[in-house]
Specification:
Number of helices: 2
Helix content: over 70%
Oligomer: single chain
Order of helices and strands: HH
Largest sheet: none
Distance between the termini: 16 Å
């Protein structure tokens, strides 16, 4: 799938996967904090949602889903 995409889109796709993994790690770390902060957890969830949506849009674009 990635071979049909332009190089900049491939770079963004791989970068967003890294961001997604990083936000999962941050969210897990936030859950283990002793004074649990729901606001910080919601921020991590928001970042995870945004990066996942970008990954999903690139996958749909790569499969010619916009035509």
């Amino acid at each position: 799938m990635l071979r049909r995409l332009p190089p900049i889109v491939q770079f963004i796709f791989v970068s967003m996967i890294g961001v997604c993994i990083g936000t999962i790690a941050g969210l897990v770390n936030e859950f283990f904090q002793k004074p649990f902060s729901a606001a910080n957890a919601l921020i991590w969830l928001f970042l995870l949602l945004i990066s996942s949506v970008i990954i999903g849009v690139i996958i749909v674009f790569g499969r010619n889903g916009f035509r």
